[in-house]
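Q: How would the structure tokens look for this protein?
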Amino acid sequence: MFEAFIIIIVISAFIGFVISVYMTLGYYQIEPFFSWLGVMMPPVCRLNDSKCVTLLQHPSAHVLWLPNAVYGSLYYLLVLITAGTHNWILLWVVRWAAVLTLLLSAYLTFMLTMRIRQTCILCYTGHFINVLLAILLWNLPII
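A: Here is the predicted structure in token form.
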């Protein structure tokens, strides 16, 4: 069961990392230089779309001078490192980071649906991954 948790965590964190990097590149408007990454995204998630640019430039899309996607990339990278090292101290750090990520995801989902009134498949996917990772990380046995 431990191995299944790790596999799902690694796959989810990798997908979240790719989405976060893609959104970071879109925030800084350098996505065209990484067209191989854009090809992997569904057609409705092209960052050159004016709706996506509006979402990425919204005040809630960044915290402390950096886009949320940068923090997401770091979080997912930390989850991947933790999954690879089996360090129980790092696991506790990642577990509490997952709680903070859940709080931010709840806020961003509220902003997206109630304030901005837009849909964003990549955003919702990232928020779903955050919920999944939090559940898995908090239920992962310490060995």
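Helices lie at 2-27, 35-40, 50-56, 68-85, 88-115, 121-139.

The mean pLDDT is 83.

Upvote if useful.
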